[in-house]
Design brief:
elongated; 24% strand; 33% helix; TIM Barrel; alpha/beta; 387 residues
């Protein structure tokens, strides 16, 4: 399968990377063997596999050859390539695609190498680091565009700038978010910004089991703990492995808070509004257009920068409508499932609906707005146990 075809499949795809070291981090997994790592990537959901062939990353063409012998997945050769000879060597060593870094190439050279790669049957991932380079990638008509969160000169990471660039990329291109992805929520942030895939290396190679770490990053559903009013409850939700933490800004709710409490960038913060919204520091907004018969209606929009990226379906699952799970399973797009979910039934709900995310609030409380930490831990564990 071509790299473009592998990354263009529905849902967030992942390019899993093999490397032993990096100029920014030094040694990551010195002595790592391709035949021990790469097959685990293929078994655990990698759409494609990236192999560093540059000696500065502890790599060589022999690593690419070993990867080709070990797996059938599309192989992306990564390094600093600037000539047709480089591309020909990579193709002969088993590459299906190559990295072209705009920082190191002018437009004429990039266009020439794109054309030559195509003649060899190679795809090319054209990498941009800023808005000017993104425009250059568009100008040379790159079909696959990588947006790197790392500045290769300073090694500084700017994930916010990366996500802004991902959101700016045209929808007719395959967009890959590269670097600085260590958690499922960070991968989801790239997905919601418009990325078709993430490229992950260091966090996988540092893991005790790189394949299991990859499976964790790409698995769904995400798990949300909502109605948080105390910092200690936020901290427990994060420590338990929640991917999203929710804050309700509807004054009529017993779980009302007037701001987003502190949460690390390893999770996504969600502000919940009813009928109208205001600016917050949250990553996402959960917006109920109607109040309904209570504090809020039963369905909400999930918004990123005002753009709808999913829907929340909120119903009392085990009460009056036994067919609702079946209907929810037929809903298109990203669905966050909510309504009476807790440790005792979240596995069944996930099996029935296969949602993008699950959400729980009152079932995790000792009293309104006060979380029961044991229930929070049990709910998150149960939801992730379906990975």
């Amino acid at each position: 399968m071509r790299l473009a075809d592998a990354l263009g499949q529905p849902g967030l795809q992942a390019i899993a990377e093999f490397k032993r070291r990096s100029p920014s981090a030094g040694d990551i997994r010195p002595g790592a063997r391709v035949d021990e790592i790469v097959p685990g990537y293929a078994r655990n959901g990698a759409a494609a596999i990236s192999v560093l062939v540059d000696e500065r990353f502890g790599g060589s063409l022999d690593d690419l050859r070993a990867a080709r012998a070990a797996v059938d997945a599309p192989l992306l050769a990564k390094g600093f390539f600037s000539t047709e000879e480089h591309l020909r060597e990579l193709r002969e060593a088993g590459a299906d695609a190559v990295l072209l870094i705009l920082r190191d190439l002018d437009d004429e050279t990039t266009a020439r190498l794109l054309a030559y790669a195509a003649s060899l049957g190679l795809d090319a991932l054209v990498e941009a680091h800023d808005a000017d380079e993104l425009q250059r990638a568009m100008a040379v008509d790159a079909p696959i565009v990588g947006v790197n969160a790392r500045d290769l000169q300073t090694f500084a990471i700017d994930r916010d700038a990366q996500l802004a660039l991902v959101a700016q990329a045209p929808g007719d291109r395959i967009v890959v978010a590269e670097s600085a992805i260590h958690t499922r929520a960070q991968g989801a942030a790239a997905e919601l910004a418009g990325a078709d895939a993430i490229l992950v290396g260091s966090s996988l190679m540092r893991a005790a089991d790189p394949g299991a770490k990859l499976r964790e990053l790409v698995s769904r559903p995400l798990v949300k703990v909502c109605g948080l009013t105390r910092q200690e409850d936020v901290d427990v939700a994060v420590e338990s492995g929640a991917d999203l933490v929710g804050f309700i800004h509807a004054p009529a709710s017993p779980r009302y808070v007037d701001r987003v409490l502190d949460a690390p960038d390893t999770v996504l913060a969600v502000s919940v509004f009813v009928e109208e919204t205001t600016e917050t520091e949250a990553d996402l907004v959960q917006f109920y257009p109607e109040r309904g018969s209570g504090v809020r209606g039963r369905e909400a929009l999930l918004l990123r920068d005002g753009v709808e990226v999913g829907r929340l379906l909120d119903q009392p699952w085990q009460e009056h409508d036994p067919e609702h799970w079946r209907r929810a399973a037929k809903a298109g797009g990203r669905v966050m499932l909510a309504g009476g979910l807790g440790p005792e039934n979240v596995r069944d709900a996930i099996a029935a609906v296969r949602p993008w995310a699950v959400d729980a609030t009152s079932s995790l409380e000792r009293e309104p707005g006060i979380k029961d930490h044991d229930k929070v831990r049990a709910y998150v564990e149960a939801a992730h146990d379906t990975d």
